[in-house]
Amino acid sequence: MSKFYYSISDNYEDIFQPNDKQISFLEELAHGKILDVACATGKVAKRLQDDGFDVMGIDLEEKFVNKAINKNKIDAKCMNMLDIDKLRDNFGLIYCIGNSLVHLDSSEKINEFLKKCYDKLDTKGNLVIQIINFHPFLQVDDDYLGNLPTIKNEKVKFVRKYFRNGDFIRFNTVMTAGDKSIENDVNLFPITSDELVTLLEQNGFENIKIYGGFNKSEFDKENSRPLVLAAEKL
Questions:
Q1: Which of 44, 52, 82, 145 could form a disulfide with 162 if both were Cys (CB 3.0 to 4.6 A apart)?
Q2: Which Pfam families does the UniProt entry name for this protein (predicted)?
Q3: In sequence order, what are the residues at sequence separation of 6 or more whose Cβ sits closer than 8 angstroms to the Cβ of residue 149?
């Protein structure tokens, strides 16, 4: 994972920017201290912080963490998401968005992460997960599974394609910025909405809600591209 993100780190904020629906969704569930898991350069955390919330972030990529601290002025640490139990604080909201969860390479590791999230949440605390809805990809009987819309603006073009790779899905990207072009491949673990809900329930989460986006659209397992999930520790 680190090689993939390191290679696009200089252009990451040109590719991915927080949007108002995303921020509103998180703020509706926020109270107490907030933890951004896989915070990247800290742009989402900064938006929340600017709105008065107490936020810290963690990310495995040191270059991202340095930008989060020095550019976006976020309290951030270089840390594996499986080590959140080592953090001193508990949180009213933990969120892991941007398809970061599925960089964990097994359901066992995802389960371990969810358990640690539950333990680090305050009572009435919320967990938000956002990943790709992998169910439609898993129905395709071909090595090429499909793509997401190309991100293109005046600074960068970012092409995203998905391929079958055994029990994993190979995420292929090509980023073009000026005369620079970088191609990457990284394996993702294609956990489905049903599997994720089962793990959450097994770890004690309740009030689990699934949406087809941060706009709270209805989730359609066959057709939705994003999968946004919110769960509560009672």
A1: 145
A2: Methyltransf_25 (PF13649)
A3: none
